[in-house]
Amino acid sequence: MKVIFVGPSLHRDLAFLRRRQDDIVWAGPARCGDIARAARSGVTAIALVDGLFDQSAAPWHKEVLYALSLGLPVAGGASMGALRAAECDAFGMRGIGTIYQRYASGEIMDDAEVAQLHAPEELNYLPLTEPMVNVEPTMTLLDRAGVVREAAVRALSAVARGIHYSERTYAEIIRRSADLDPEEAQAAGNWFQSNAIDQKRLDALEVLDWLHAQPDRVSRPMHSWDFQETTQWMQLLHAVRDE
Predict the structure, then answer these.
(1) pTM, entire model
(2) What is the CA radius of gyration of the chain?
């Protein structure tokens, strides 16, 4: 069995995927301890897309290293998975997708670039705001489409970057762009509704493809580093074992 930690990045697909792909454990966004727990549960591959970071502690890098030390293939992309992959790819974690590449190359570095407010599991983790990793390519496409002036695109982009992740929506970006005339604001709003890029979803689907391609067996661990069992790590592992 394989596991994927995913929520808002695949919101529109989750109901369909859960019905059609029952060979995968569809876990929600990962929190501290979840990857370690999965590694001990007998899964054969782990994919990290979404993770929690504000209402609970985020998954540790050490959990990824622990899974890799057991010989488990681990990949990440799209959201927190892209962050952890960029930080752990030197140890064998597989990074997937455009967002991962941007972090790995140093083009973007702030964790907030992927931050996004979303609804709970009962609503399939419905995204409530837009992360900058979606907004930036959308603004580039808007500029190419020529829907509004180039200066207006620059203004929209600047306003978007100044909005906290918990409040950033395309409607809010337009509302705060005081220099847009009413016709441009209307045109941009209509265009966003039909053409906004969801880079997180695109990358998450690539991660899912990777997960499908993994064998249903665990290979012998092959790495040149030793996993260090620190006191803090042992405390987390004991907590996982005691659940």
Answers:
(1) 0.94
(2) 19
